[in-house]
């Protein structure tokens, strides 16, 4: 009897053991799968290179920090990556920033016992410019001679411009890497001439910053303050002028895209300009804004990007260089890529609009339902910077007369036409952008306010009144690069005949069904 029970027990064990083994194998397989999944996720979040090359869709990457995420932009197209070949030299797409395709590793990552720092530049032969970036970078504001910056305008009236622009001492910027016991220059004159040429710029501050940069041995990068998120280092020149500032914004935007930042970066101004009205838009576009001299001690950046000067963008180079380029819709370029056409300026205009939460359908619907809006962009007196008198030079001597005549004429039309008085100097940036978005026609004398055309909708018509003293192609080019219908009245002086302006405006409105 005892032997029978023992035999039965052994039979049950024989049947149970295979089941237990199968169960253990299943648990092990599941655990191993979870392990691989976690390892894969961990690798994606923290790769060896601190600037992961993650592909974007509609310009959006998964947020990985407290920085602002990129908004979804209808005109976004992928920037240069391993999956997208660079455009040919001197093509439209190369001019608008997607030609920073030659990577130069100045200080390769993970080389021997060189520490955690690295430094590289992305060069555009088309623009003759480079976007440089580095890891474990130290900025010492004590080695930069310039005014503090960010002061109220009224407190610094009369301050000279040279006081506001940076002059660097050796070691103002440092990067950790292999060095023989003492700091050594990061680059030599040959490198600067090849990749950061002056290009006719009298004071090339980015070149000067690179010239001051030193490589220091591991453990010698002494910092009491670290900035963990990617940060753009930017120098502005004509910071109170909308056209020049938009070239700075565009350069900073392109720098962020070329280096494939997962979120909108911080910005540090390497200049000592006072606070100006346009700083509001810097703060809207990027995650944070500060001045280098606001740091009281040396500060270190896990990832710093040196943004090229606005003078090196297509918008500025187009004033002196001739290149074939026209605007196109993103849908047409997705269907049929063409390097001689671009949607980059539309993409950037949407970036500005989205930063003020205006990338919405209700503006477009109200634009169509409330009649035709004619926006007259005005030039008016305002105090721009410490060397400014507060008086704006007239480009249209009878501007008020022309505005009043258009307003009165529009009231007598059968169709509904609303004439808006675009006094931009006394409007917030959000109000200015809304006025541009709602406009069916934008009219005005040649002046920086017309630079807002970068944010205009594709159906907007443009009428520029150009005096004989200011025959410059700024806004004809922007309109062409945005594929906007452009008209111009060239004056023999600065006085416009009201009938000429109204006749030209009548033709434009007839084309809109009025």
Automatic annotation (TrEMBL):
Keyword Cell membrane carried by entry? no
InterPro entries on file: Glyco_transf_61_cat, Glycosyltransferase_61
Give the membrane topology.
Single-pass type II membrane protein
One GO CC term on file:
Golgi membrane
Keyword Hydrolase: yes or no?
A: no
Some GO term, biological process aspect, for this entry: which one? shoot system development
What name does this protein carry? Beta-2-xylosyltransferase
Question: What is the native source organism of this protein?
Answer: Zea mays (Maize)
Q: Which gene encodes it?
A: LOC732746
């Amino acid at each position: 009897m005892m032997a029978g029970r023992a035999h039965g027990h052994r039979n049950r064990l024989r049947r149970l053991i295979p089941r237990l083994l199968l169960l253990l194998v299943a648990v092990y397989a599941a655990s191993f799968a979870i392990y691989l999944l976690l390892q894969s996720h961990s690798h994606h979040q923290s790769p060896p290179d601190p600037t992961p090359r993650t592909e974007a869709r509609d310009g959006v990457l998964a947020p990985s920090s407290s920085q602002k995420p990129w908004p979804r932009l209808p005109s976004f197209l992928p920037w240069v990556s391993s999956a997208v070949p660079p455009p040919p030299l001197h093509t439209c797409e190369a001019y608008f920033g997607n030609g920073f395709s030659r990577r130069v590793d100045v200080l390769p990552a993970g080389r021997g016992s060189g520490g955690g720092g690295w430094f590289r530049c992305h060069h555009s032969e088309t623009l003759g410019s480079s976007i440089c970036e580095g890891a474990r970078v130290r900025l010492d504001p004590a080695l930069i001679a310039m005014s503090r910056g960010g002061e109220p305008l009224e407190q610094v009236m009369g301050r000279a411009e040279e006081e506001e622009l940076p002059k660097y001492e050796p070691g103002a910027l440092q990067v950790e890497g292999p060095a023989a016991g003492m700091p050594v220059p990061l680059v030599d004159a040959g490198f600067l001439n090849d990749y950061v040429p002056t290009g006719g710029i009298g004071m090339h501050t980015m070149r000067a910053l690179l010239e001051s940069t030193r490589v220091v041995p591991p453990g010698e990068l002494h910092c009491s303050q670290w900035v963990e998120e990617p940060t753009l280092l930017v120098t502005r020149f004509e910071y109170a002028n909308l056209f020049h500032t938009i070239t700075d914004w565009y350069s900073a935007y392109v720098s962020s895209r070329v280096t494939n930042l997962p979120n909108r970066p911080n910005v540090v101004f390497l200049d000592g300009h006072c606070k100006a009205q346009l700083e509001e838009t810097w703060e809207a576009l990027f995650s944070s804004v500060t001045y280098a001299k606001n740091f009281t001690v040396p500060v270190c950046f896990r990832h710093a990007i040196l943004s090229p000067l606005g003078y090196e963008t297509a918008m500025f180079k187009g004033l002196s260089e001739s290149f074939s380029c026209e605007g196109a819709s993103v849908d047409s370029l997705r269907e049929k890529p063409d390097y001689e056409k671009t949607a980059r300026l539309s993409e950037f205009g949407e970036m500005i609009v989205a930063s003020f939460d205006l990338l919405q359908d209700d503006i477009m619907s109200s634009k169509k339902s409330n009649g035709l809006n004619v926006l007259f962009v005005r030039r008016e007196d305002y105090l721009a910077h410490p060397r400014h008198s507060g008086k704006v030079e007239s480009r249209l001597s009878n501007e008020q007369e022309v505005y009043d005549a258009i307003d009165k004429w529009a009231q007598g039309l059968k169709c509904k036409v609303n004439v808006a008085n675009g006094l931009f100097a006394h409007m917030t940036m959000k109000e200015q952008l809304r006025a541009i978005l709602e406009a069916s026609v934008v009219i005005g004398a040649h002046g920086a306010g017309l630079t807002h055309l970068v944010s205009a909708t594709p159906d907007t018509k443009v009428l520029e009144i150009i005096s004989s003293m200011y025959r410059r192609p700024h806004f004809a080019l922007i309109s062409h690069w945005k594929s906007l219908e452009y008209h111009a009245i060239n004056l023999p002086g600065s006085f416009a005949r009201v009938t000429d302006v109204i006749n030209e405006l009548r033709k434009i409105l007839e084309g809109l069904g009025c």
